TrEMBL record:
<keyword id="KW-0642">Proline metabolism</keyword>
<dbReference type="InterPro" id="IPR002872">
    <property type="entry name" value="Proline_DH_dom"/>
</dbReference>
<dbReference type="GO" id="GO:0000166">
    <property type="term" value="F:nucleotide binding"/>
</dbReference>
<feature type="binding site">
    <location>
        <position position="288"/>
    </location>
    <ligand>
        <name>substrate</name>
    </ligand>
</feature>
<feature type="binding site">
    <location>
        <position position="99"/>
    </location>
    <ligand>
        <name>substrate</name>
    </ligand>
</feature>
<feature type="binding site">
    <location>
        <begin position="226"/>
        <end position="227"/>
    </location>
    <ligand>
        <name>FAD</name>
    </ligand>
</feature>
<dbReference type="GO" id="GO:0010133">
    <property type="term" value="P:L-proline catabolic process to L-glutamate"/>
</dbReference>
<feature type="binding site">
    <location>
        <position position="134"/>
    </location>
    <ligand>
        <name>FAD</name>
    </ligand>
</feature>
<dbReference type="InterPro" id="IPR008219">
    <property type="entry name" value="PRODH_bac_arc"/>
</dbReference>
<comment type="pathway">
    <text>Amino-acid degradation; L-proline degradation into L-glutamate; L-glutamate from L-proline: step 1/2.</text>
</comment>
<keyword id="KW-0547">Nucleotide-binding</keyword>
<feature type="binding site">
    <location>
        <begin position="187"/>
        <end position="189"/>
    </location>
    <ligand>
        <name>FAD</name>
    </ligand>
</feature>
<keyword id="KW-0560">Oxidoreductase</keyword>
<feature type="binding site">
    <location>
        <position position="163"/>
    </location>
    <ligand>
        <name>FAD</name>
    </ligand>
</feature>
<feature type="binding site">
    <location>
        <position position="201"/>
    </location>
    <ligand>
        <name>FAD</name>
    </ligand>
</feature>
<dbReference type="InterPro" id="IPR029041">
    <property type="entry name" value="FAD-linked_oxidoreductase-like"/>
</dbReference>
<dbReference type="GO" id="GO:0004657">
    <property type="term" value="F:proline dehydrogenase activity"/>
</dbReference>
Amino acid sequence: MDLNLSYRSFVLAIAQNPSVKNLVLTRGKGLSRRFVAGDTLEEALKVVEGLERERIHAILDLLGEMVTSEEMARGFQAEIVGLIRALGARPYPRYVSVKLTQLGLDLSEDLAFSLMQGILQEARQADCFVRIDMEDSPRVDATLRVYRRLREEGYTHTGIVLQSYLKRSEKDLEALLPLKPAVRIVKGAYKEPPEVAFQDKRLIDAQYLLLAKKALENGLPTAIATHDPHLIAEMQRWTAEKGISKEGFEFQLLYGVRRDEQRRLAAEGYTVRAYVPYGTDWYPYLSRRIAERPENLLFVARSLVQG
Ligand code: FDA
């Protein structure tokens, strides 16, 4: 198994420990600020304005996932609708990401579908794009089904995510092609078993390039979402060689990660978006960011000691 991936599994496993969670929640708020724009929409919008000054657009993400009641799901939907309304009044590109488990997918697929319909109706008024993030592997089928139903209902301003660590993703992309979906390609952020996911970085990276290139060859509006310098460089080289215009795709990175690279790509004329999470439910998001990079664990240890 790849060392980086065993580190990731380790961090994602200890993040489930109640004492670790409690410690980070009580003392790690400062730490969350490296990756999270703030608790409130107002704080997030200030971050968006700062990014816009650097020609980087934002993808706003109200943190929250795996809700356990319909009331919570409806509460998140109301907040997301409020977010879209707030964006509608602003001059910059409008783009949000949502997770279907935030909208009750684990309770009922129909509930998540109908709450998404409400979000997409509002988004249509506000000329806002809505990306459906992809979660862990047991939820992929349901997420793709909800996406397909939304497309059948005529909602075109929404898109899907494919994870290159999942062995199934190439087949999923092929099956989706007739819909001409807007796709975001990522490596994948969850702890997944070897039965469903590649554990070797080389295989994950190879499938990443395969998926991104296949999406672009088929003319799909494609978001290349990675911080990996080798993958970014290869996609820059390959798109230039194929004569694919810079309008045909975009680079997406996470707020707080490789800011220099975000600015560099924007200065070179690429569309660059930063994924900007905000809200109080930051613990699962932060755990995944720490799991992605060993250096981030040192950062956690320092923050917890300093309080
Ligand atoms: P990789 O992990 O190999 O990192 C390459 C380099 O990037 C590292 O060496 C380091 O320099 C830098 N880097 C990466 N992560 C870092 C971090 N946390 N802190 C500091 N430096 C870091 N996943 C998912 O399962 N479903 C989803 O819907 C999404 N959505 C999404 C949107 C956007 C815009 C992005 C950028 C990413 C996602 N992801 C995601 C997360 C994705 O699956 C993946 O976990 C991270 O992007 C990290 O993988 P990289 O491709 O960056 O490569």
